[in-house]
Structures are given as C-alpha cells and as structure tokens.
Design a protein that fits this description.
The protein is an all-beta fold and about 120 residues long. About 0% of the residues lie in helices and about 60% in strands. Strands 1, 2, 3, 4, 5, 6, 7, 8 and 9 form a nine-stranded antiparallel β-sheet that branches.
Length: about 120
C-alpha cells in the first residue's frame, strides 16, 4: 500500500481549533485565534496555519518557530529590542527564549512550522 510523504498545507478537510491569548497575557483588544494544525510529527514538530483578529498580548517562546505571513499586518516587539512590522510575504524565525509582544493590527494569517 502506497503512503504519500507529501502533505499540502491547506485548510480543506481540517477543522480549526479556537483560542485566545493565555490567561494574564492579554494587553489590549479581544483577539480570537483559529489554528489549523495540519501536521504533527514525532519529535515535537508541528505545521499549519494560524489566524488572529486584532489585539495585543505578551508572547514567550520555549520552542523554535518559522512563520510566513499570508495576510494582514502585525507588530512583533522583542523585550529590549526593536519592534518589527510584518505583513503578507514576510518570513521569519522566532527562537527559543524570545520574549515580547505580538500585536495584530489587521487580522493576520500565517503558515508556521514549530519545533518543540
């Protein structure tokens, strides 16, 4: 029996999980998250699509994450560093130890790959 090792990152056939910022991390707004976790592999690797409505909250990363912005505008500010505006077409990595804020200015959708 043939098993494909190709997996498209697409919303079709995947039910999203809904969420909000973790308790105590919300700074402003009422952001609502939708996460389509498309792939979950051994070793703590995840890939999918995440979307948030406007708002601002604190973030802290213990994991490594690659992000590619599909739509919208967000501002990511690292504690003690500069704020970076990201929009459709931008790609970046957030490394373990990153602490700061994520502000969704316009509803933002991203593709992600996380390694725990």
């Amino acid at each position: 029996m043939y098993v494909s090792h190709f997996r498209a990152i697409a919303l079709a056939g995947t039910n999203p999980e809904s969420g909000t910022p973790a308790e105590g991390r919300l700074i402003s707004g009422e952001p609502q998250f939708q996460t389509w976790n498309i792939e979950e592999a051994e070793g703590g690797v995840y890939a999918g699509i995440w979307e948030s409505t406007p708002g601002k909250w604190r973030i802290e990363y213990d994991e490594w994450e690659f992000c590619h912005i599909l739509s919208g505008v967000s501002v990511i500010a690292e504690d003690g560093g500069e704020a970076r505006t990201v929009r459709a077409g931008d790609s970046f990595v957030l490394r373990p130890g990153f602490k700061g804020t994520w502000e969704v200015v316009e509803t933002t959708r991203k593709e992600y790959v996380v390694r725990v």
